[in-house]
Structure formats: C-alpha cells, structure tokens
C-alpha cells in the first residue's frame, strides 16, 4: 500500500467516524478523502484566517453580513441611512 493510499484510507476513516459511522457509505467517504488529499484539504493559510473579533460582532448582531475590521473601528461614527430605523 502506498503512502497516498494509506493517507486516503486514514482520511476516509476519519470522515466515517465524524459522520457517526454510517453503513454503506464507504465509496462516498473514499472519494471525499481522495478529493481532500488531492486538493490539500482546502486548508486556510496566512491572511485567510478569519478575524475572530469581527465574527463575534456579526454573531452578536445576528446578521449574515460579513463584517471587516474597519466596520468595527468606525461603527460609532456612522449614521443610519435616511428613512431607516436604527436597530437596537
């Protein structure tokens, strides 16, 4: 067994366990593991790391909008759009 095949087997096993060990899904898990291995697992690197402070602020406001750091810095200086109520 090659190193790549062992890595795929290990990843497929981890996927199987994460999904609650369902029966009859081994082919799906194997192909998903192959995809993840060949694409590097789609890992986040460097500047792609999310800003946790901005994510917390978005969760606090219960919105689906993406907030960037500058939104947090000048939020107190912005005025509401005319005709719109300010949210509590």
TrEMBL record:
Name this protein carries in UniProt: DUF2934 domain-containing protein
Biased composition annotated in UniProt, kind: Basic and acidic residues: 18-39, 70-79
Region described as Disordered: 18-49, 61-88
